[in-house]
Specification:
185 residues, mainly beta
Length: 185
């Protein structure tokens, strides 16, 4: 007998897990021969998220996200959610994006990742790309990188790791994220 669901949430969670798994496999097949440059420089991030790149600053971005997978699944360029930047976010010793919000778009560009996120901050915008890996219980993790910035965030480069922990009872549609890494101007 088919599983009865409230608002199709388990279906959305399964669809999201399938899409993220396929995207992860696809991205894993893409390598960097080291011969070119891109919008984000590669930096070293220690296991604790501290800066490993010379001249870089530690970045920590904490968020609350609401994921909205469109009916029928994500389509490149379609909205997949939004959220807010939480207190405790920082670049070095300075607060990052106080009172900021963000929106997510589904991406099919392997140079960006599955999620193309734009943070709207009081002093500019920061665009990052990331692809969460295969879910592990109520959590997912994966790499992220800076795509571009405006205002005081223009010229920022860097990367790191992200983790999302889904809120119980949300069918993997709401969670708290933490992005850690290193950025350089």
């Amino acid at each position: 007998m088919p599983e009865k669901t409230r608002l199709g949430q388990p279906f959305q969670a399964r669809w999201l897990a399938l899409v993220l798994t396929l995207a992860t496999v696809g991205l894993a097949a893409c390598g960097d021969d080291g011969g070119g440059t891109d919008a984000a420089t590669t930096s070293t991030v220690n296991g604790d998220g501290s800066a490993g790149a010379e001249g870089g600053e530690k970045i920590v971005i904490r968020t609350h996200v609401n994921i909205e997978i469109p009916k029928g699944g994500p389509v490149p360029g379609s909205s997949t959610g939004q959220g807010e930047v939480l207190d405790g976010s920082s670049i070095g010793d300075s607060p990052f994006c106080p009172g900021g919000t963000f929106s997510d778009m589904h991406s099919d560009d392997p140079d960006i990742g599955l999620v193309d996120r734009t943070f709207r901050c009081p002093d500019g915008r920061l665009r990052i790309g990331f692809t969460p890996g295969v879910p592990q219980g109520r959590a997912q993790a994966g790499p992220w990188k800076v795509v571009s910035g405006t205002g005081s965030l223009a010229g920022l480069h860097g990367d790191g790791q992200m983790e999302i922990k889904y809120e119980p009872g949300t069918g993997s549609t709401e969670g708290r994220e933490k992005f850690t890494g290193t950025v350089v101007p």
